[in-house]
From TrEMBL:
PANTHER family: IRON(3+)-HYDROXAMATE IMPORT ATP-BINDING PROTEIN FHUC
Assigned keywords, A-Z: ATP-binding, Cell membrane, Ion transport, Iron, Iron transport, Membrane, Nucleotide-binding, Transport
Membrane topology: Peripheral membrane protein
This protein's GO CC annotations: plasma membrane
Organism: Halovulum dunhuangense
InterPro entries on file: AAA+_ATPase, ABC_transporter-like_ATP-bd, P-loop_NTPase, Siderophore_ABC-ATPase
Transmembrane segments: none
UniProt-recorded name of the protein: ABC transporter ATP-binding protein
Domain annotation ABC transporter: ranges: 2-238
GO MF: ATP binding; ATP hydrolysis activity
Length: 254
């Protein structure tokens, strides 16, 4: 899906991202990990075309990302930023309807397929009983599902999410990641998601890409990340791997 070549981005004369070669989005769920300031949001901002690289090329299915019309990009890539705007006076259903913007006909006409996409997204994300509630009257976890429903209604094959679990408790974080994995399996979406929690990442990712100081320090399957050496290299601390029957080990700070 995405192919990056010799991509760099700097701020104030300092390289914050430098990637020689990277293909992303061919797996169901790709998790991007890395310490604070490692370049995760910068990378996702480039993929979502919220920002442009200083050097290098980014292609989406062989086409230069920079050349795509905004509407075409939105039909292919749906992006949920880390800081979501505060929404006042909209119901969850109305929020989900906003996801249809790249598909609306001339003069913004609302068609049957738009209704179907919205209702499908509501059902798939489990927000049916919330659909007529005001967004500001939902809990953090419920609201996050509403935003993901909006993303799904956009009907793009690639979903980019920047720390969608950041404000959620453990149970709701699990729920959101399980939902994203289900969407990748059953709705054929390619999910690229930034997380901080190593254990959440290894549990739900098909592939993990970890950044360190703006470069790719690890790229592989979850079980390969779970080595004390790899984790020390990424985060600079010692971690212990607790074995679990029938599951990948659980990483804890030693
Ligand atoms: N607009 C900007 N101006 C100056 N520096 C910036 C800007 N945006 C990002 N940076 C710097 O670039 C580096 C990478 O930032 P980025 O937000 O991509 O990291 P991150 O891995 O997403 O971090 P976090 O886990 O804290 O969200 C950081 O050192 C940050 O301070």
């Amino acid at each position: 899906m995405f192919r990056l070549e010799q991509v760099s981005r700097s701020h104030d004369g300092r390289d914050v991202l430098r990637i020689d070669q990277l293909a992303l989005g061919n797996e169901g769920v790709t998790v991007i990990l890395g310490h604070n300031g490692s370049g995760k949001t910068t990378l996702m901002g480039l993929l979502a075309r919220q920002d442009r690289p200083d050097t290098g090329r980014i292609a989406l299915e062989g086409e230069p990302l920079a050349a795509l019309r905004q509407r075409d990009l939105a039909r292919r890539v749906a992006f949920l930023p880390q800081r979501l705007p505060t929404v006042h006076g909209l119901t969850v259903r109305e929020l989900v309807r906003l996801g249809r913007f790249p598909w609306r006909g001339a003069l913004g006409a609302w068609r049957e397929e738009d209704h179907v996409a919205v209702e499908n997204a509501i059902v798939r994300t489990g927000v049916t009983t919330l659909a007529d509630r005001l967004v500001e009257e939902t809990s953090g976890g419920e609201r996050q599902r509403g935003w993901i429903a909006m993303l799904l209604a956009q009907d793009a094959p690639v979903l980019l999410l920047d720390e969608p679990t950041a404000a959620l408790d453990l149970a709701h974080a699990f729920e959101v990641m399980a939902l994203l994995r289900t969407l990748s399996r059953e709705a054929d979406r390619r999910v690229i998601v930034i997380l901080h929690d190593i254990n959440l990442a290894t549990r739900f990712a098909d592939r993990i890409v970890a950044l360190k100081g703006g470069t790719i320090a690890f790229d592989g399957p979850p079980d390969a990340l779970l080595s004390a050496d790899v984790l020390r290299g990424l985060y600079g601390i010692d971690m212990t791997l607790l074995p679990r029957a029938g599951a990948l080990p659980h990483a804890v700070v030693a």
